Amino acid sequence: MISVFLGPPGSGKGTQAKKFSAEKGVPQLSTGDMLRQAISAGTALGRSAQEFMSRGALVPDEVVIGLIRERTQRPDCQGGFILDGFPRTIPQATALDALLSEISREVSAAILFEIQDSALVARLTGRRTCVTCGAMYHLLSMPPRKTGVCDQCGGELIQRDDDREDVIRKRLAVYHQQTAPLVEFYRQRGMLSPVDASASPDAVYREVKSKLAVDTQP
């Protein structure tokens, strides 16, 4: 099983991928995590990525595909894996197909995390982070006992820059511009399975497992 998890920022695809990975032993491949690890390890691809990131440029597709090629060759990926947030464009999807064809494999499912922009804005703008310990809160769903103060360490709670409404709406605009064609790409191939990402995390997880036709027994 090789699955692609698609969805806008804040839709919960990363959380669901981590949960599925932990329960079923299927590696979660996040390009963001892979980039950070490669840079930290000082690999050739990591150094190349760092050059682009240090000047604020996007990491080229060929570098990201190179990271995926390296990662998928490890033994834990032989039984399948989840790609979290990649591909994001048609060129990335076709490059992924070419990479997988080299090892006689292919994407078996694309899970689309669907949620209205208005719900995402409310979800993300309500997040607060402790500057001291990094604990996360939400003004509506998980507020701190004392406004602006972390329950765990007493640190100050702040709204991160990328949780501001103007930033979120820009990220959503980019997502819709890049990903709408990709959604149709997988739909036409009969691989696309939408899930209601506005539901509770447990309900979303049950739907994800159902879409992937995975036995829900431990």
First-last Cα distance:
18 Å
Q: Summarize the amount of helix as a percent range.
A: 40-55%
**Strand neighbour order, sheet with most strands:** 2-3-1-4-8
Query: Could you give the order of the helices and strands?
Result: EHEHHHEHEHEEEHEH
- Give the low-pLDDT segments: none
Return the average pLDDT rounded to an integer.
89
Alpha-beta classification: alpha/beta
Give the number of DSSP strands: 8
Envelope shape: globular
Under CATH at level 1, the class of the domain at 2-26 and 79-115 and 169-211 stands as Alpha Beta
Q: At CATH's second level, what is the architecture of the domain at 2-26 and 79-115 and 169-211? A: 3-Layer(aba) Sandwich
Rg from C-alpha positions?
18 Å
Q: List the total number of helices.
A: 8
Strand content: 5-15%
State the fourth-level CATH superfamily of the domain at 2-26 and 79-115 and 169-211. Answer: P-loop containing nucleotide triphosphate hydrolases
Q: The biggest beta sheet, please?
A: 5 strands, parallel
Overview of the molecule:
The mean pLDDT is 89. The protein is α/β, with parallel strands linked by helices and 218 residues long. It contains eight helices and eight strands, in the order βαβαααβαβαβββαβα. The chain has a five-stranded parallel sheet, with helices on both faces. The protein has a domain at 2-26 and 79-115 and 169-211: 3-Layer(aba) Sandwich (Rossmann fold). Helix 4 (61-72) runs parallel beside helix 5 (90-101) and helix 6 crosses helix 7 (165-188). The protein has helices at residues 13-24, 31-41, 44-54, 61-72, 90-101, 117-125, 165-188, 201-211, and strands at 2-6, 28-30, 81-84, 109-114, 127-130, 136-138, 157-158, 192-196. It is globular and about 55 Å long. A hairpin with a 5-residue loop joins strand 5 and strand 6 (136-138).
